[in-house]
Amino acid sequence: MAKPTRKRRQPTQKPFIVGVANDLSEYASVRVFAESASDAEDAISEMLHRGELTMLEFERGDDREGPYTCDVREEESDDQVEITIKDGQIIQPKPQAFKLQCPHCEYDGKEPSEHGGTFRLLSDTTIWREIVRVRPAKKGQPRTLIVEGLSDKYDEDPEKNDRLECRACLKEFDLPKTLPVDYI
Ligand SMILES: [Zn+2]
């Protein structure tokens, strides 16, 4: 006769944010699923003790003990954390669905726009020209800065104020922070 399987009630876990301090001035936040705040802090303490959280990014000091937990509280909606831990395991962050979209007109670049292309990366570039001299005022002409016509570009640090241009509405918007740029 088959034994009746007994259902074990799953304890409810919820996310807590545990602060981890290192060298007094360096902090990282860790999301951990636990039944209580103290369980959350204990779980992180043990993982720190076992050296399982060495990927946390803070500068390591050389003369103080640490890292150690310093704070625990329930998660709020806008918490930013370094890592998430559930059942003693580090959860790899899911790649977030990302869509490049104009915040002004909601154009998403699926079809080329009537202005051609989809989006453009705009950057300010510094152009320099040699100053020849300041010509004094004479014969009704004002004092004038005389500049060499040939221009050149600063090679170092030429790109500034990078932003995207929507080719549908031609408005500009900030480059999403989660979207690094690689020049090919
Ligand atoms: Zn647009």
What does this structure look like?
The protein is mainly beta and 184 residues long. 7% of the residues lie in helices and 33% in strands. A hairpin with a 3-residue loop joins β1 and β2. It is elongated. The protein starts with 13 loop residues before the first strand and ends in a 10-residue tail after the last strand. It binds zinc ion. The site of zinc ion (ZN) has 8 residues, from loops.
Could you name the key traits of this structure?
single chain, 184 residues, mainly beta, five-stranded mixed sheet, binds zinc ion
Number of domains: 2
Number of helices: 1
Percent helix among the residues? under 10%
Number of strands: 12
**Radius of gyration, CA atoms, in whole angstroms:** 29 Å
Mean pLDDT: 82
Q: Briefly note the structural class of the backbone.
A: mainly beta
Span from first to last CA?
Answer: 69 Å
For the biggest β-sheet, the strand order reads 3-1-2-4-5
Main sheet: strands, sense, barrel? 5 strands, mixed
**Unreliable stretches:** none
Q: Which ligands are bound?
A: zinc ion
The amount of beta strand, in percent, is 25-35%
What is the element string, with H for helices and E for strands?
Answer: EEHEEEEEEEEEE
The outline comes out as elongated
